[in-house]
Design a protein that fits this description.
CATH class: Mainly Alpha
CATH topology: Ferritin
Radius of gyration: 16 Å
CATH architecture: Up-down Bundle
Order of helices and strands: HHHHH
CATH superfamily: Ferritin, core subunit, four-helix bundle
Bound molecules: fe (ii) ion
Strand content: under 5%
Largest sheet: none
Number of domains: 1
Structural class: mainly alpha
């Protein structure tokens, strides 16, 4: 099998960070679903519909990051144990008021963006443009969402 002609050690480092991103995106997908199901109050319908779009988009991100890990020669985990071990996103059992949940989502997306920037920089320094461009579009869409989440709770 032809490989991607990338430095093996750097590739392993990139994969390590992508695994953290995978776990974190997966956790945020679950958290967003939880808000979609459990949100209460006068904003219910708007937030219910908006989080529907958000978790679908996070599902696409999970897929894209998992696929990139495999393209870089790694194994993409698919168990709750591994995902939860890799994630940096704090999941919740209790869902507070709608605004608090939207603020929490904005913070979680900011965490994903910080991680994606780190990956993008490392990938750029390794000439791994496939990962760089994946991370750059990831950053763009999550930054847009952070802006929208922040504006909706101002
Ligand atoms: Fe639904």
């Amino acid at each position: 099998m032809a490989d991607l002609n990338l430095d093996k050690t750097k590739c392993e480092e990139i994969r390590g960070l992508l695994l953290q991103l995978l776990g974190s995106v997966f956790a945020l997908y679950l958290k967003t679903l939880g808000i979609h199901w459990n949100v209460k109050g006068s904003d219910f319908l708007g937030i219910h519909r908006w989080t529907d779009e958000q978790y679908e988009s996070l599902q696409d991100d999970v897929d894209a990051v998992g696929e990139r890990i495999v393209q870089l020669g790694g194994h993409a985990p698919a168990t709750f144990e591994e995902m939860s071990h890799l994630s940096q996103v704090q999941l919740v059992r209790e869902f507070r008021d709608a605004n608090a949940m939207l603020r929490a989502l904005a913070e979680d997306h900011a965490l994903l963006v910080r991680l994606a920037r780190k990956i993008s920089q490392l990938a750029a320094a390794t000439s791994d443009s496939g990962t760089t461009s994946l991370m750059d579009s990831f950053i763009q869409s999550h930054e847009k969402l952070i802006w929208m989440l922040n504006k909706s709770v101002e």
